């Protein structure tokens, strides 16, 4: 994250980080104001009419932008199918194996909390489903284009396996990341190569 940011950006980031810890509904405007060093509650209402507007901006910044960064990275990946699949799985746990660095958000958050937060937002706040759905659709389109020879069925399969992998990773305390990524990638390959 940039050291120089606007108070609006600071509010959005603070809302995001507090929501990961406590859940959006359990974060008050006063909490956000206390944790935003640049402004208090009055500064929040200067930028946002109501608290729900914050969640809209959080989704734009931390889901839509993150999805776009992922799509750009996959679009520019020139590896084999297995290399691309490994990239996809590692990227979704916060590791960019192409650069050897973390995905930008991974320096700020725990990706397990990230997924739980947005699954919860999708479930509890139907008003944001369209935006989250569009993000999902963009990712699926990217899978179809880059991983499945323009086959929607294969793209859906890869997407579904990735979602299952993420849930397995979140729920399993003894999850062996490298072993399971390889296992999931080989499983996808065995289906796609038939």
From TrEMBL:
One function term, GO molecular function aspect: DNA binding
Keyword check for DNA-binding: yes
Keywords: DNA-binding
InterPro entries assigned to the protein according to its UniProt record, in alphabetical order: Homeodomain-like_sf, HTH-type_Tx_Regulator, HTH_TetR
Secretion signal, residue range per the UniProt entry: none
Ranges where the HTH tetR-type domain occurs: 11-57
Protein name from the UniProt record: Transcriptional regulator
Lineage of the species this protein comes from: Archaea, Methanobacteriati, Methanobacteriota, Methanomada group, Methanobacteria
